[in-house]
Amino acid sequence: MKDSLDEQLHHLQEELRITEESKRQLQNKIMHSIHSRKQHKSRPYLWAAAAICLAIIFMSPFYSTTMAGLAAKISPISITPGIADSDDNSGLTSQLYQLVEGEGYEVNSVGVLPSPDTIEISLVLNEFSLQYAKQQLEPKIMNFLSDNGYDSYEIKILKANEKFLPDRADKTNDLYDQVREIVKEIFTSYGYAEETEYELAGLKTSLFSNVVTLDMPDHIKEKNKIVASIEKELKTQKLKVKKIEVNSFNLEHRQQDNRWAYMVSDINEALAGKSVYKLAGISYMVREGRSYVTIKTELDSRTSDEILEEIERAIREYLSLPDIQEIILNDKYAIQLVNSDEELLVEIKN
User: Fold this and answer.
1) Which residues sit opposite 248 in a β-bridge?
2) Helix axes 171-189, 223-236, angle to 10 degrees
3) Which of 87, 216, 228, 335 has its CA 20 to 30 A from that of 9?
4) What does the alpha-carbon distance between residue 319 and residue 139 come to, in Å, rounded to a whole number?
């Protein structure tokens, strides 16, 4: 059964690493989608031409001997809706941002990574050495995690690569920003301002040429005219772009995928790092308008009903929150909790 499930699911391309800026961007897209759907409920939007699967991140939870005694204790689960408010700071990554920044450090990113459960914190180090930062921060972070019921995380503190810092923009980034602005203006001029809330332009660079990749929502009828207008403006501004490659996508599917990506992240954040729940991975896919979520664990047949009931209670409470209900709207979904043999332990669906 495991092989069958693996065939249906496609590996997640991004590990659970997020910067505050990227978090805000996705929040804005989701909240814009909610606002637009309130105003245009009858307008159909579509996304991917084929059902794209995002699959199980297999994780091997880390258990230290000092934490083993906590495994028998059921940690209460509270799933925080990270998409509800762009100013919300109650999620684990946001709290870690605040904790580290409160110690006088500039944070580049905070990530939750698998195999083993690891919290990776990237710092912009100017006046401090990496060794000093580790000595100062690691005990405080571990105490914070312990106080909040996380008992199986390792901490990894890194120095951010200056080459990739946001304020180290190079010519390629400048070109991308110019292209993106042109794309947004032209889509807006054709009456598709709402679509520009999504990242429609990409840039592939090489030593000899630059290629613009253009995501084109498949409900747009003026596809050829829009592409021609973009090509004309690129030439007018004398930007070094060799050609435009167009990829069609289904906007409604993308909107739903964005919503569930963030909700899956919320669920993962609440369950990961707690050895009693033995999270092994979490995945989702959107297919024919229904969202499928698989929560894989290393729980076995001896698992107490209390543990399963706690997980189910937390997920149901999360889904019933007004903020989450506003985001889900009419989405159909099926959420399954399974053990290592893919046997169903809990199912929540509408």
Assistant:
1) 216
2) 140
3) 216
4) 34
Residue 157's beta-bridge partner residues?
121
Q: How many CB atoms lie within 10 A of CB 82?
A: 23
Higher pLDDT, 129 or 207: 129
Confidence label for 31 from pLDDT (cuts 50, 70 and 90): low
The rounded distance, in Å, linking the Cα atoms of 17 and 23 is 10
DSSP 51-119: --EEB---------TTTGGGTTS--------TTS-TT---SHHHHHHHHHHHTT-EEEEEEEETTTTEE
Question: Do residues 96 and 121 touch, judged by C-beta distance below 8 A?
Answer: yes
Candidates 273, 251, 265, 313; CA nearest to 293 is: 265
Question: What pLDDT score was predicted for residue 81?
Answer: 85
Asked if 215 contacts 201 with a C-beta cutoff of 8 angstroms, the reply is: yes
- Measured N-to-C along each axis, helices 20-39 and 92-102 cross at an angle, to the nearest 10 degrees, of 140
Query: Over the range 216-241, which residues count as b (16 or more CB within 10 Å of their CB) and which as e?
Result: bbbebeeeeebbebbeebbeeeeeeb
Residue with tokens 């669906």: 349
Asked if the model's pLDDT at residue 340 lies above 60, the reply is yes
Report which of 87, 89, 30 is spatially closest to residue 263, judged by C-alpha positions.
30
At residue 38, the pLDDT reads 44
Q: For residue range 286-308, list pLDDT tens digits in order.
A: 999 999 999 999 998 888 999 99
Q: What is the CA radius of gyration of the chain?
A: 22
Per-residue tokens: 188: 């807006």
Q: pTM of the entire structure?
A: 0.70
Q: What is the residue type of 140?
A: K
d(CA 97, CA 52): 32
Q: What is the DSSP string of 166-183?
A: TTS--HHHHHHHHHHHHH
